């Protein structure tokens, strides 16, 4: 059985110090539950300055504790993540975002870039629709 390290553990492992504000922001992230905007996170952690919230979100993103996703309307949100490279299924009804990894899909994406002579730095993929519960 594998366990996913919590964000605090991941931060510690990445060498970043888990400071008071970071702890506060992680708690706020957990409190928000689903995908959130940085503005919502600022509102959920009023004791932490905006600049610190922005910096911490970036740090959490780098350590894989949260990931960035783009909704169908183009707005950017963040959510708690299992980490690692993955894609998203975004439900337009309940707003839930499922993470999934698909090695075959990644293989096709790399092959596509290669055929086009495109030097690929990375990719992100969001599927929009309704989840099993909402369909
Ligand atoms: Zn994700
Ligand atoms: Zn749904
Ligand atoms: Zn991929």
**Percentage beta strand:** 15-25%
Main beta-sheet strand count, sense and barrel state = 3 strands, mixed
The total number of structural domains is 2
Low-pLDDT runs of 5+ residues are none
Strand order of the largest sheet: 4-3-5
Overall CATH architecture of the largest domain: Orthogonal Bundle
- Please identify the top-level CATH class of the largest domain: Mainly Alpha
Annotation field: number of helices: 5
Mean pLDDT, to the nearest integer, reads 90
Question: What are the bound molecules?
Answer: zinc ion
Give the end-to-end Cα distance, rounded to a whole number of Å. Answer: 32 Å
Question: TL;DR of this structure?
Answer:
By secondary structure, the chain is α+β, with helices and mostly antiparallel strands. It has helices spanning 7-13, 20-32, 38-44, 50-63, 103-115; strands at 66-70, 76-80, 87-91, 97-100, 126-129.
């Amino acid at each position: 059985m594998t366990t996913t390290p919590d964000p605090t553990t991941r931060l510690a492992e990445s060498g970043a110090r888990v400071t008071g504000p970071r702890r506060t922001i992680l708690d706020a992230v957990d409190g928000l539950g689903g995908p959130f905007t940085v503005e919502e996170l600022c509102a959920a952690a009023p004791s932490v300055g905006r600049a610190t919230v922005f910096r911490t979100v970036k740090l959490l993103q780098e350590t894989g504790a949260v990931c960035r996703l783009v909704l169908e309307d183009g707005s950017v949100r963040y959510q708690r993540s299992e980490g690692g490279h993955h894609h998203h299924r975004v439900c337009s009804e309940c707003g839930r975002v499922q993470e999934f990894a698909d090695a075959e899909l990644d293989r096709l994406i790399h092959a596509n870039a290669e055929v086009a002579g495109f030097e690929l730095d990375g990719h992100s993929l969001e599927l929009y629709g309704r989840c099993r519960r909402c369909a």
